[in-house]
């Protein structure tokens, strides 16, 4: 599958290390360029995942972990539906600095490829939107998302279609389903960044 450039000055698929990714987004955030680009490109990931979640999660007084929250675009969408408790984490300190004040309960700068310093079974929902892509968070992070999510809680995520198979996401998800760690609720092709001809798989799974 062709690799598409959706980035700033350098194509995302050319990034190799965690530090490169962090510096990339720190630079992209300057002058509000990241938020402006997402708006101009009609980035639909935050809206689409929020819409799917609200179909199955009727309780708005729940705890949500936004993994790879960036500048808070998912939190902004979820708030429109009446959700109010979000903890967020992202690799880019500069993007975290652009999260609207008082939107998130807690924000932390972390590498989601490492262990998340949260207790087991603490969140009702984990969101991971726009983070499963080139040189970003690996498929193994799903284990941590499951660990911090309550039984019968939900995990909602997008996966760039260009990495879904080659980066091990399909095999990881298939194994998690086979071993009764998660159960598929919805899985379909998202518009994601249609204006850039970049699509993603959108998944909603229940933690068993």
Structure notes:
- The protein is α/β, with parallel strands linked by helices.
- It has helices at 18-28, 33-40, 45-56, 73-80, 93-96, 141-148, 169-178; strands at 63-67, 85-90, 106-109, 123-132, 149-160, 182-193, 198-207.
- Helix 3 (45-56) crosses helix 4.
- The longest helix is centred in the N-terminal third of the chain and has 12 residues, at 45-56.
- The protein starts with 17 loop residues before the first helix and ends with a strand.
- Residues 1-7 have low confidence and may be disordered.
Number of strands: 7
Q: For the CA atoms, what is the radius of gyration?
A: 16 Å
* Helix share, percent: 25-40%
Q: What is the CATH domain class?
A: Alpha Beta
* Dominant shape: globular
Q: How many discrete domains?
A: 1
How do the strands of the widest beta sheet line up side by side? Answer: 3-2-1-4-5-7-6
What is the CATH fold-level name? Answer: Rossmann fold
- Count the DSSP helices: 7
Overall mean pLDDT stands at 91
Cα separation of the termini: 33 Å
Unreliable segments of 5+ consecutive residues: 1-7
What string, H for helix and E for strand, traces the elements in order? HHHEHEHEEHEHEE
Per CATH, the architecture is 3-Layer(aba) Sandwich
What is the assembly state of the chains in this entry? single chain
- CATH homolog superfamily: Vaccinia Virus protein VP39
Strand content: 25-35%
What profile does the largest beta sheet have? 7 strands, mixed
Q: What structural class should be given to the helix and strand makeup?
A: alpha/beta
